[in-house]
Amino acid sequence: RGALYLVPTPIGNLEDMTFRAVRILQEADMILAEDTRQTLKLLTHFEIDTPLTSYHEHTHSDKQEQLFASLEAGEVMAMVSDAGMPLINDPGHPLVKRCLEVGVPVIALPGANAALTALIASGMDQERFTYYGFFPRQTKMRQEILEQVGMREETAIFYESPYRIKDLLKATIQVLGANRSVVLARELTKRFEEYMRGSAEDLLLAVAEQGIKGECVVLIAGGGLEASSQLAADLSYKEHVEQLMQ
Ligand code: SAM
């Protein structure tokens, strides 16, 4: 019986690759990659020449079966995504489940992850947090998720494209109030890494003025929906929010 290794890769800075990750990728019979072109760059950098094949949610079921049969037959496979932890908003869950069902060992290596990296430097409550993955695109779902954030005490962590950060901040102001603490963590581990900390209003104004580029993690402080709905009922506050929305 083989084994499936889940191998994190850097989220920007190649020095964040671990020694163990390099060794496992070297020793595996096959590397399963979300995007083989992306992974090939990493493998070239670390002089790893293990055979590489693609694995993602659209991988044809015949190929999935073939890969699974090889695992059962004794091959050792290492799964990577384009960046960070495989399975964390990246492919891999169905294969992990299949392996566990039939007793193929699944071994996860620790390593780079954008959400946790942002959380520990954010200054927000890191004891309790909820990771939501990508912020939903539909207005109704956004509203629902933000209401949940407001009702819970935990820090909320979202992934979001820089093109939609402004909309996320606007939605946050509408549902949770302009004073809600937010942290934008962008380009983590890269040359232009930056943490922007402040109220949702401060950050909206800053983003509207300077723009925002690069990959982003957004953290929103939990708690206090009641306080923000009281605020929302206040007429002058309502006008203020309407101005911000323009
Ligand atoms: N598997 C990855 C992980 O463990 O963090 C996440 C993959 S998800 C498809 C990609 C999203 O993660 C980006 O859109 C961004 O929100 C976040 N992300 C990835 N790298 C980042 C970085 N260097 N700085 C900030 N956010 C990052």
TrEMBL record:
Lineage: Bacteria, Bacillati, Bacillota, Bacilli, Lactobacillales
Transmembrane segments: none
Catalytic activity entry: cytidine(1402) in 16S rRNA + S-adenosyl-L-methionine = 2'-O-methylcytidine(1402) in 16S rRNA + S-adenosyl-L-homocysteine + H(+)
One Gene Ontology term of the molecular function aspect: rRNA (cytosine-2'-O-)-methyltransferase activity
Family: Belongs to the methyltransferase superfamily. RsmI family.
Domain of life, source organism: Bacteria
Enzyme superclass (EC): transferase
Shown part of the complete sequence: 13 to 258 of 291
Residues in Tetrapyrrole methylase domain copies: 4-203
Name of this chain's protein: Ribosomal RNA small subunit methyltransferase I
Keyword tags: Cytoplasm, Methyltransferase, rRNA processing, S-adenosyl-L-methionine, Transferase
Free-text function comment from the UniProt entry: Catalyzes the 2'-O-methylation of the ribose of cytidine 1402 (C1402) in 16S rRNA.
EC numbers on record: 2.1.1.198
Main location group: cytoplasm
